[in-house]
Amino acid sequence: MDEKLEPIFDDIVRRNPGEQEFHQAVREVLESLGPVIAKHPEYAERKIIQRISEPERQIIFRVPWQDDSGEVHINRGMRVGFNSALGPYKGGLRFHPSVNLGIVKFLGFEQIFKNALTGMPIGGGKGGANFDPKGRSDDEIMRFCQSFMLELYRHIGEYTDIPAGDIGVGSRELGWLFGQYKRITNRYESATLTGKGLEWGGALVRREATGYGTVFFVEEMLAARGTSLDGRTVVVSGSGNVAIYAIQKAVARGAKVVACSDSSGFVHDPDGIEFELLTQVKEVERARISAYAERRPSARFVPQGVVWDIPCHVALPCATQNELTRRDAITLVENGCIAVAEGANMPTTPDAVRVFEEAGVAFGPGKAANAGGVATSALEMQQNASRDSWSFEFTEGRLAEIMKSIHDVCHETADKYGAPGNLVRGANIAGFERVARAMVAFGLV
Ligand code: GLU
């Protein structure tokens, strides 16, 4: 890290004790910014880095709810409005037992740069709760969503903060959240939430967008190296919304996806993961991934196994933060992996990223590679604002253009700052510059 940035980083660590994931996300961005600060002394003068790493606002609230037996539970809800220089706060809500303020801040911080890279008018934010939906009935999750919204509603709005889904929050939960929002506010304000169902203001392709976008991004990375996905073996981690649609699109582009996972283990299917069976198991039945192997003779389930042990050309980590370690990176490189793109947020540990960089593996960081989800959320907002709905083909075309432009800007910026091929640097610098220019224009706010 540049010596001018080190004391700033130390201060951020001091002011945010114990928030390791947040420190990790900030460190990665600051490590890229040395040459930017050297070129633009006004950013240091105006303390843009110190300001960008301090959320504009952080809301923490109690979420009481009752389970089906009448027992009372208390969870902690939060929403961090990190930066609104480019537009209203925009980012998902995560419901998972691991959620704490440090996790929400790391996600919100990443979201600032990701959203900037899309070129769309959206700031960065994130929220969630340490609520565990696993094993809960539909009614319990609905009551939780309603209680969560009873506080959140006063902090959001189409010009203020626009939540969407993330881990544990999909269109079903967004339905319960939006129903409650509409009821409390007496307004059918569609553009306050994105990722909505198609019948009530949602947009085609939003469901598929993060996974599709990640595959479009990989194709750009491979094309820049004179190759393609066609005939490649792919391994995906996770089996949620991002993983499922990454698998579908990778297969459509001629790849063979041989493994995917959930928190209980992974399935290896050398014949290629069958999309219909996977969606039946994970989306319709909401069952464990082992149910896939039980119904598919060519597949085996490996409980607690590491999916990265399966040889592949392309690895798509689409589960959660810090799931791909240095050991996994070494295995992937030894097995001939040529490209990695992050469908999840920060799934690769910093020492694993270094292994890929040293081995010359093409690496697409999440804030670029998984930006298709939030970009399509911005397209959903556009459609809501104009009371219009676009066709699948048109929307997918827009998504593909956006992913190409994100790849190109990261690639060109890496070149310009003397780190050719380094998309981590390119993404951090390009995202930062867009936000920094707007912050300078606004003066000290
Ligand atoms: N949670 C997603 C992300 O990490 C989507 C956010 C959104 O659509 O607002 O980017």
Task: Give a verbal description of the structure.
The chain has 445 residues and is an alpha/beta fold. The protein folds into two domains: 6-188, Leucine Dehydrogenase, chain A, domain 1 (Rossmann fold), CATH 3.40.50; 209-369, Rossmann fold. Helix content is 48%, strand content 16%. It has 18 helices and twelve strands. The chain has helices spanning 6-15, 20-32, 34-39, 41-45, 48-52, 101-117, 138-152, 171-185, 206-224, 241-252, 275-284, 290-294, 326-334, 350-359, 366-369, 372-385, 392-416, 423-442; strands spanning 57-66, 72-83, 89-95, 124-129, 161-164, 233-237, 256-262, 265-268, 300-303, 314-317, 339-341, 362-364. The strands form two sheets. It has a seven-stranded mixed beta sheet, sandwiched between helices. Strand 10, helix 13 (326-334) and strand 11 form a beta-alpha-beta unit. The site of glutamic acid has 11 residues, from strand 3 and helix 16.
